[in-house]
Amino acid sequence: MRATILGMALAMLAGCATQPPSPEAIGATFPSRQYVLLGEVHDNATAQAARLQALTRAVEAGWRPAVAMEQFDRERQADIDRARKERPGDADYLIAQAGSAAGWQWPLYRPVVALALQYDLPLLAANLSRADAAKIVRGGLGAVFPQDQQAALGLDKPLPMEVVAAQTATLDAGHCGNFPKAMLPGMLNAQAARDAVMARTLAPYAGRGAVLIAGNGHVRRDLGVPRWIRADAAKVLSVGYLEDGSPAEGFDEVVRVAPMERKDPCKEAVVKPR
Fold first, then answer.
1. What pTM value is reported for the model?
2. Could you read off the pLDDT of 192-243 as tens digits, one per residue?
3. In this structure, which CATH number among 3.40.50.2000, 1.10.10.10, 3.30.70.670, 3.40.50.11550 belongs to the domain 26-257?
4. Can you list the positions of beta strands (E) in the chain?
5. Rounded Cα–Cα distance for residues 46 and 51 (Å)
């Protein structure tokens, strides 16, 4: 009898251990960190809703971070600030003025923008533009950043070999095993530059707390923005919002959601240089 009761108790504990963290529980940890990096699968509305819920709970409880978004290119910060002055609280107007048409599904991001406006939080354009990324791919980091800026961003040293290997594998998998090797050095530089720029965007707001809204690859501790943040690792929280079945390496917390139904991009994979 005792063995049966013990077995039932262990089974219950095991079940509790596998329960995903609730948005409330995740959000409650945000104020204790200087940097909170919240990932996404760009087209998965369920994951984005879970992320929004966690962020909203933390803000409603009194946290007042800056909110940086991959979806706004860094050149559009002036447009964000102008739109806020012209029509305070109007998320649609801000997106129309500062957002790009670079494939973002803006209805999914509008609630984050609206939350920042509702609570008068700094809203930061965090991304390196596609145009600048393309310049780096073709001409190296110097095509966009002078040497002093490379040093300030931490881009003046070679990437560690383990990062090169992991990013190479990620790029190759993302291109169905057909990634052109000649483009690899440039793509690695461009990816590093994007992550370094995002980290630099967050840095001035560490005292009040800074949130990054970005793809899961950018918030990974081993490969993404956390590598470029110059702060105690304990002050950084990385949350991956992942579809079932996808790898979960590199995150402090993982929230799983059902995968979206999509066409298989590898059935007719064609890689074209950007």
1. 0.89
2. 999 999 999 999 999 999 999 999 999 999 999 999 999 999 999 999 999 9
3. 3.40.50.11550
4. 35-38, 66-73, 123-127, 210-213, 236-243, 253-257
5. 9
